[in-house]
Amino acid sequence: MVSKLAFGLACVSFASALSGQQVQEAERSVAGARSTACDCLEFAGVYYDNLAACGRAHELYFATKYGASAAYAPTEPIAGLPHQVCNNFFKNFKNNSCVNVDLYAYPSGNNDANSGKQWCYVSNECLSLNGGTFATNTLGFAIGGWHNLQSTGNLSVKFCDSSTDSILKDKTMDELMAIGSESDVSMAMLLRLAYPAVQVTWGEAKLLMEAINENYDTALTLTDNVNAVAVPPNTWGTRLTEVDTTIRGIVTSEQGTILEGPGQRDEFHVILGREVWEVSRLADPYGNMAYLAGKFYMEFEVTCVLGCSPSTREAPLDLLTQ
């Protein structure tokens, strides 16, 4: 009797263990389906875990494309704009969406091979980098940095594909503001790393955007509304025609695009469909106070100034009258 009971308990124990193993395998299978080696890694987590040094990839591409050495970037005393980009933005950026390679990129003009691309860090096991760079080991990282003046790292870098990756340029303004608030990063810098930019000022685009919105017919498509606005004559030179064509293309594409002002300042306008958003720094001393306190999200205001739909938020529930 005892032996039969022991045998029965052993069978139950084995079946339970087998069942638990199957559950664990199933959980690993589901987790594997959710996460792959080519999934983008969260930027802040990468730096916190010392998996990459800010500046050796494309964080400071706006400087390295002109000859600054990315190999020395993490070891030099970082000040000015590089400090703001690495310490104030990327090391606080708790998100794994792909960002622009170039902080000051244009879709035309002084382009290079990386113009218009977005990137992120991925595991060394990822083999589909879309033209990105493979990692080296720790020794290669040191040798590349100090002797060959090459920017090598121990995490791979991938150029992203909007069909498979989360890319900032595909986000709406509300989504970007939620991301900026969560990470407490500058909205001016976040938008520059999200959207493309064109060398057209708000002053040049203002009249066309006002005409599109003043005569907007909700029964028509966005393209039809844009086409309904008369094209200006070219009697005043080619610049007016170029600006008009560029802005119409931006509006109908519904791709968020920065209108670049003089000097590439952090205050600018963004066109998203027929919407126009203004990015402005808080007037001093409040802007300086936000920056010095490390409250980078509060340093800039992002306000819709034209073509935006009213808020649809519900009123808070009054528990006293329910």
Task: Write a concise keyword list for the protein shown above.
322 residues, alpha+beta, five-stranded mixed β-sheet, three-stranded antiparallel β-sheet, 11 helices, 11% strand, globular, disordered N terminus, Phospholipase B-like, signal
Question: Could you describe the 3D structure shown?
Answer:
It is a single chain. With 322 residues, this protein is of the alpha+beta class. The chain has 11 helices and 8 strands. Strand 6 and strand 7 form a beta hairpin. Helix 8 crosses helix 10. The N terminus is likely disordered.
Short overview:
By secondary structure, this protein is α+β, with helices and mostly antiparallel strands.
Detail the topology: elements first, then pairings.
Elements: H1 2-34, H2 43-48, H3 61-64, H4 80-89, E1 99-100, E2 118-122, H5 138-146, E3 156-159, H6 173-183, H7 187-192, E4 197-198, H8 202-214, H9 222-227, H10 238-253, E5 257-259, E6 268-272, E7 275-281, H11 286-292, E8 300-306
Parallel strand pairs: 4-5
Antiparallel strand pairs: 1-2, 2-3, 5-6, 6-7, 7-8
Helix pairs in contact: 8-10
- Cα-to-Cα separation, first versus last residue: 66 Å
**CA radius of gyration:** 26 Å
Low-confidence stretches: 1-33
The shape is globular
Count of alpha and pi helical runs:
11
Major beta-sheet overview:
5 strands, mixed
- Residues in helix, %: 25-40%
Would you tell me the structural class of the helices and strands? alpha+beta
**DSSP, total strands:** 8
